[in-house]
Amino acid sequence: MAYKTVNPFNNEEVKSFTSLTEQEVAAKIDQADAAYKKWRQTDFATRRAVMKKAASILRAKKAEFARLVTLEMGKLIAEAEGEVDLTADIFDYYADNAETFLAPEILKPKDGGTAFVEHDSVGIILCVEPWNFPYYQLVRVAATNLMAGNVVVVKHASIVPQCAEAFEKLLLEAGAPEGAYINLFVDSKHVGKIIEDRRIRGVAVTGSEKAGASVAGKAGECLKKSTMELGGSDAFIVLEDADLDKACQWGLWGRMNNTGQCCVAAKRFIVVESVADEFLKRLTACFSKLSMGDPMDRATTLGPLSSEAAAQEIAELTATAIKHGAKAVIGGKRPERPGAFMEATILTNITKDNPVFYREFFGPVAMFFRVPDEKAAIELANDSEFGLGGSVFSKDIERAKRVASQIDTGMVFINRPTWTAPDLPFGGVKHSGYGRELAKEGIMEFVNRKLVYIEK
Ligand code: NAP
Predict the structure, then answer these.
(1) 309 vs 112, 195, 313, CA distance in Å?
(2) Is the CB of 215 under 6 A from ligand 1?
(3) How many CA atoms, within 13 angstroms, populate the side-chain half-sphere of residue 295?
(4) Locate the Aldehyde dehydrogenase domain: which residues (predicted)?
């Protein structure tokens, strides 16, 4: 797709960008390779200084960075500011911890020799990233790899080109050498060719299953390590002993944060029968209070989706659900107003033969299921192709922990929806992908765990 800024609040095109030619991409990889040869030799203090500076620039220019996010993909302005803060925190986190994470591990071989595993850089990492958190997705791969001595070339989503450029500029301004972080405006169909370049040593994707399967296939063919952070359809389990006030507040946030466009959004509400009516009534009341409008306006609580195409897609998926027997207890269609909007919607009566049953609703549409008991809740939660996050609501923490252990996902949160922090490993299983970003795990993905052995 061509790189363009289109404001989803009114669907007006703001700016378009030219994609790189094949020769220009090759020159960028040459530049990354030259930068890598120097960057890999730098010490942690040098790398740390760049990360710290990037964090401080982000905080100083928060309004400017946030405005671009809201302009390009419609995130509510306060949420965009929150994303800028989180991005700065992740820079700081790796600045402060990378050296400890990457310290050599001393081994004690039985033969009496000495040995250690050191964590060396590997080279250029290609990153393919989505629009839903235009900076946070980038820092997850940039801070880790740059601190590990790698360099990155990044294909960002075509609808957030100004954010892509702003992030590249940020790192240059923070003191990263030219070529250590390169933004590539390339069409997704050219990604395979980049992976083939022998200097690309790893590939990180965050995006849909379709993009993940395509890129992972190519990386496999070229024998390159990849990490895949893909879609999700997180269960939000409410047991009969849950604090319903808390569960409703978190349910609203879990489904509506980022206008429902989070990989770890609460997409399937699974509620035990004895509290199902009450929970549904309260959640519906919460959804009905949302105020649709301009995401730049702080009074707005339901902004547009990221693009007209995204709004059409979720409206069509909702219509399919209804055609096959689902009931919209609130919402169900697009409002009559310009822009990429969709009503806040709750769908009930979704049977297993409904074609949407296994689909990911990437927008403000909740699927609501009632189940007889805890066992049925676990079974339904696990009846998904995805395995990203999920949550369990119960006042009995030991019980919630037992339930969490039986959920087949990479992350389960108790008494709040799955969320992210610099020091919590993020990632999934099944079709949600493999590998982890953030925390110590994230920085370990693209390093050479090299064994060094010394004869006694
Ligand atoms: P997407 O269409 O897969 O796009 C993501 C990125 O992949 C974009 O840069 C896109 O480029 C590129 N792309 C698409 N098809 C490709 C292909 N065949 N080869 C190479 N690159 C390709 O996903 P999206 O709709 O933007 O994002 C939403 C999805 O991401 C959801 O499923 C969501 O759950 C998932 N997600 C997962 C995580 C996680 O950490 N697990 C986090 C956020 C989002 P273009 O923009 O040029 O098409």
Answers:
(1) 64, 28, 6
(2) yes
(3) 31
(4) 3-452
Q: Is 83 in the active site?
A: no
- Which of 188, 154, 148 has the alpha carbon at shortest distance from 169? 154
The SS3 of residue 299 is coil
Instruction: List, in order, residues 6 or more apart from 373 with CB less than 8 Å away.
Output: 272, 273
Does 232 contact ligand 1 (Cβ within 6 A)? Answer: yes
**Catalytic, out of 248, 262, 263, 286:** 263
Please name the residue whose Cα sits nearest to atom 40 of ligand 1: 229
Q: Whose Cα sits closest to atom 41 in ligand 1? A: 229
**pLDDT by residue (tens digit) across 301-356?**
999 999 999 999 999 999 999 999 999 999 999 999 999 999 999 999 999 999 99
Rounded Cα gap, residues 211 and 209, in angstroms:
6
User: Which residues of the chain, if any, have pLDDT below 50?
Assistant: none
Q: Does the beta carbon of 208 lie inside 6 Å of ligand 1?
A: yes
**Active-site residue flag, 127:** no
Q: Output the pTM of the full model.
A: 0.98
Specify the residue with its C-alpha closest to ligand 1, atom 43: 263
Token pair 């319903």 is at which residue?
244
**Nearby residues of 115 by Cβ (< 8 Å), 6 or more positions away:** 106, 107, 108, 109, 451, 452, 453, 454
Q: How far is the CA of 207 from the centre of ligand 1 (A)?
A: 3
Tell me the domains of the chain and their CATH numbers: 3-230+432-454 (3.40.605.10), 234-422 (3.40.309.10)
Report CA(385)–ligand 1 centroid distance (Å): 17
